[in-house]
Structures are given as C-alpha cells and as structure tokens.
Amino acid sequence: MLSLKIGGKARKVDITNPLGQGGEACVYDLGDGTVLKLYRRADDPSYAQDHAAQAAATKRLDTHQRKLREFPRGLPSQVVAPLDLATDSTGRVVGYTMPFVRGAEVLARYGQPRTRQTVPHNDALTILRTLRSAVAAVHAHPSGVVIGDFNSLNVM
Questions:
Q1: pTM here?
Q2: Angle at CA of residue 11, ends 103 and 34, nearest 5°
Q3: Average pLDDT over residues 23-29
Q4: For all residues of the chain together, what is the average pLDDT?
Q5: Neighbouring-strand partners of residue 95
Q6: 44 with 57: CB under 8 angstroms?
C-alpha cells in the first residue's frame, strides 16, 4: 500500500494491480468511480539501468509540480481532466485522479477491420465529428491549452 494525499486527504492506495500502465505512469482503480494516474519516479524498477529514462522521469515530475496545479478548468465535457492531485508525504505532486471511463473503446480500434465491420458508418462519423468539436473547443479555450499526447490510444 502506498500512502498519499489525494485532494488533501490521506489515502492508502493498493498499487499491486494496475488497470494499465505505460512508459511514464500506471493507472489504478480507486473503487469510487475514479482512477489514479501515478507517475513513475526515477527509481521505478522499469527504469533500472536506463539513465535517460530516469532523468526523464525526474524532469517529468518536476514539470508536473506546476503544470498539474495550473491545469485549466472549464474544458469540454468530453475531456477527461484531473479531479484531484495526488501528493506524497512531502507535498510533491506524484499523480492525479480522474473519472473512470468504463465501456469505452480507444479510437485505434476503429482502424481494425473487425470494428469497422460491426460499427455502422454513421456511428463512426458521429464519433469523429464529436472528437473534432471537442478538439476545436480545447483549442479555443482561453487558457491556451496545448494537447500534448494526442494519439489513437489516448482517445476513447
């Protein structure tokens, strides 16, 4: 169990069974309709012997101290945005919570033949138009949001 503060409240998180993981973070189900995205630190075993990855992890966490605290509000409802920050015992931001999106498919699946055969074309068109509108609304947001990791595996 990992002890964190989430939204300023002490919480223990079981980090033995992530829902998913990538090169920079793991995602955990908090059991209350939210998930925790917890960034890997430089000492994460997956970065063992990889000094460049260790340095990148340190830099990423340093950057998130500001970026996550300043994350803009009022984005389109289609944007899954941070709800609460997760901090360690020193008050350092180590991740954030967000709504648990259930039953969604990543956009990449729509490029697979089986999905294209089962999803009506009008439904696919509606999905893509909704995505286009959401991206346009994000770009028009007064905070000057930049979408930094936009790919077919991060769009549901």
A1: 0.83
A2: 15
A3: 90
A4: 88
A5: 38, 86
A6: yes
